[in-house]
Amino acid sequence: MSGRTGTQWDESVDVLVIGSGAGGMVAAIAAFDRGAKVLVIEKSALYGGSSARSGGGLWIPNNHLMPAVGILDSEDDAFQYLRAASGGAVPEDRLRAYVRFGPRMLRYLVERTRVRVDSLPAYPDYYPDLPGWRPGGRALEPCRFDARLLGGEFLRMRECAVQALMGGRIMMTVKEARTLLCRAPGWFRLTASLYARYWLDLGWRLRSRRDRSLTMGNALVGMLRRSLMDRGIPLWLRTRARELVEADGRVAGIVAEREGQVLRIAAAQGVILAAGGFESSQTLRERYLPHPTRAEWTCGSPENTGDGIELGLQAGAGLECTDYAWWGRRPWFPARSERAC
After folding, report:
1. What is the pLDDT of residues 16-63, one digit of tens each?
2. DSSP alpha helices (H): ranges in the chain?
3. What is the per-residue pLDDT for 337?
4. Among the listed residues 16, 229, 25, the one whose alpha carbon sits nearest the alpha carbon of residue 109
5. How far apart are CA 283 and CA 279, in angstroms?
6. Is the pTM of this model over 0.90?
7. Spatial separation of the C-alpha atoms in residues 97 and 101, rounded to whole Å
8. What is the distance between the alpha carbons of residues 293 and 280, in angstroms, rounded to a whole number?
9. Which of 72, 216, 84 is nearest to 135 (CA)?
10. DSSP track, 277-302
11. Do the beta carbons of residue 68 and residue 174 sit within 8 Å?
């Protein structure tokens, strides 16, 4: 991190967000809604990161949708469950903050943005033997989202993991995937309707194989991207943060590279590092994860090479739980909906 002062800035904002996944976009929206001038930057040519490739699921205990599906919850039960599941690896004040503010965050998004979610009453917590467990309802998934609302921004979104698509093309919700995987009543009719909806989008089929009826992480990212567009929050692609700039004992901005041009961007109120993990960095995998490990084994974004982590370390931040991961039995296999079956 540079200690330079008197930097000549090329761009000035109040809040600068590094990374265009769900976390970064939610932070940008919240800052804007509180009166800040906000800029989001993304180093790749596509926005959305691993959020776009993911199942898009949210785990929000005691959320406002649970009573409607007949499952009651409480902050205390959620805290007890998280404390037991984390085994002391996470400070209790962070756990309490999560169970307190998670439901507020969800209600804020539903009320103030394009985000819409559906409760998953049959998607249980992973550890039924722990105190505070619930049989479902804490897990939520994005509702379907029409990509036409994104206009030209749709094809700049990172694609969903192909393994999660029907025939490598057609998007499904978690509830639909459960019906199909279990061959539950109505599975054949559901299959026919999904294929019909996809192929009857005739004009778009001539342009792209991508499904415009978005689900999973593409739906969540699409909703958030449209919410940025509603607010006029700029998102710069192909813009990589290279260095944090310090002035008067605080991070005052960054040095970035945008399509080969070096820029200095001031951030009067703060820089938010939301640049994802390091799963695509062979160097960092070898440093932090059990061996053997290979970067090509990940389902995450190929752009997740730990840039935000490295910037944070330069600024004196600490690291925790870097040897934790969601491991699968096979490389590239995204384990998601089968957990709800």
Report:
1. 999 999 999 999 999 999 999 999 999 999 999 999 999 999 999 999
2. 22-33, 49-53, 75-86, 92-112, 174-182, 187-199, 202-205, 216-231, 282-288, 307-314
3. 46
4. 25
5. 10
6. yes
7. 6
8. 11
9. 72
10. --TT-HHHHHHHSPSS--GGG--S-T
11. no
